[in-house]
Design a protein that fits this description.
This protein is an alpha/beta fold. It has two domains: 3-59, Winged helix-like DNA-binding domain superfamily/Winged helix DNA-binding domain (Arc Repressor Mutant, subunit A, Orthogonal Bundle); 73-246, Rossmann fold. Helix content is 37%, strand content 25%. It has helices at residues 3-17, 22-29, 33-45, 70-73, 78-90, 104-109, 125-133, 155-161, 187-198, 236-239; strands at 19-21, 50-52, 55-57, 63-64, 97-100, 119-122, 137-140, 144-146, 151-153, 166-172, 175-177, 181-184, 200-206, 215-216, 218-221, 227-230, 244-246. It has a seven-stranded parallel beta sheet, with helices on both faces. A hairpin with a 3-residue loop joins strand 11 and strand 12. Helix 8 (155-161) runs parallel beside helix 9. The protein is globular, with a radius of gyration of 18 Å. The termini are far apart.
Length: 249
């Protein structure tokens, strides 16, 4: 297959899925990983996509109305997610009553949580399992299960959150912009995040650098209403809008 053909097919897949992994591309295009990585680097330089660790995403200045599934997102920006998750876990004290949002970035923080007596509530199925495996006391929010993100959502989920008062909550996000704030494609997930933040003394949003400068369908929090934990951020305008902790700078 010619290089131009591969590039066209990669961009076509991105247009459909908005995020692709190197593994997916090697299988679909029957090419080696080194070839695919060179293709992604070339397309990134041409500003036709954004190359990330493990794959690529569509251009960040496009409006995001999609959500990749857990399997796709879990292999993107792994190093950055773990750096963010490790720092987030260090903020949890033994007296804390903590809400952890569903999502691949928030899930990484559980690998670094010590069983120090803190109590956890989550709407993530995988998150609850990992917390229990680490010996932590954890509760799962009841409600409708959204298969693609393995998250509990819906009116029942929002209602269940309302009875809690958290010391800290850790949320994921699909996009971050100064004017639109923290956004996500799904209305029901946005409502869950919004209610959890409302019920929390301090809200932290966990996001790698690729989430900045992007906008999705539903705003769940203003930028100034939450602290951001990220690997790094290049534009000063975000630092002027809220508290940002860069863990890999």
């Amino acid at each position: 297959m010619l290089t131009k053909e591969r590039h066209d097919l990669i961009l076509q897949m991105l247009k459909q899925k908005r995020a692709v992994t190197v593994t997916e591309l090697t299988k679909e295009l029957e090419a080696s990983e080194s070839t695919i990585r060179r293709d992604l680097s070339a397309l990134d330089k041409e500003k036709k996509l954004i190359k990330v660790h493990g794959g690529a995403t569509a251009l960040e200045d496009e409006f995001i109305s999609f959500e990749a599934d857990v399997a796709t997102k879990s292999v993107l920006n792994i190093q950055e997610k773990h750096a963010v998750g490790k720092y987030a876990a260090s903020l949890i004290n033994k007296e804390d009553f903590v809400y952890i949002d569903a999502g691949t970035t928030t899930e990484t923080m559980i690998d670094y949580i010590e069983n120090n007596g803190a109590v956890f509530v989550t709407n993530g199925i995988a998150h609850a399992r990992k917390l229990i495996q680490r010996g932590c006391k954890a509760y799962v929010i009841g409600g409708e299960l959204k298969l693609s993100t393995e998250a509990i959502v819906g009116a029942e989920g929002v209602s269940n959150i309302k009875k809690y008062n958290f010391t800290k909550c850790f949320l994921g996000t699909n996009a971050i912009a100064v004017d639109q704030g923290f956004t996500t494609p799904d209305i029901e997930e946005a409502l869950m995040k919004q209610e959890a933040s409302k019920r929390s003394h301090i809200t932290y949003v966990l996001a790698d650098h690729t989430k900045f400068g992007r906008v999705s369908s539903v705003t769940f929090e203003n930028l100034s209403d939450a602290c951001v934990i990220t690997d790094y951020v290049t534009e000063e305008k975000y630092k002027k809008s809220t508290i940002i902790k860069e863990v890999l700078k």
